[in-house]
Amino acid sequence: MVRPLAKAVSRSGDGYLHLLLPLLLLLYGSPHAGPFIQLLIPALLMERALYWSLKNSLKRQRPQEAVPGFRSLVTAADRFSFPSGHSSGAFLLATSLAVIYGGPMAVIFVWAGAVALSRVLLGVHFPGDTLAGAVMGSSIVLLTAHLLGS
After folding, report:
1. Which cellular components does GO assign to this protein (predicted)?
2. Who is most buried in 2, 20, 32, 57, counting CB within 10 A?
């Protein structure tokens, strides 16, 4: 039961929501869709650049390669482990929603935390990878919002 749920939650953090959610907000005429998109795009560009740079310069092995006899439950999309891109992206989206839409959207952090946990449960990240991703994603949004005056 845990494996299918972890896989589904992990897949929800693949990045499709970063495209789908702004489109839905525009489609449904959310008055905050514009500010949300204006925050999300530069934050996401900055996050992806930092994520890629860190992952490919630090080259931390994934648990399956680092721990003898360990087997992950899924195959990761890339080779290295630190930081978790799924966690970073999920917390970036959650923080963006919370900054623009306020308190009621804070519940989205439950989803972001579940995405991070799923990556550990599936064996493709160490807990520190997901924690670093969460801090990175949220921090980039807060910095971007500050720079934009949001």
Report:
1. plasma membrane
2. 32
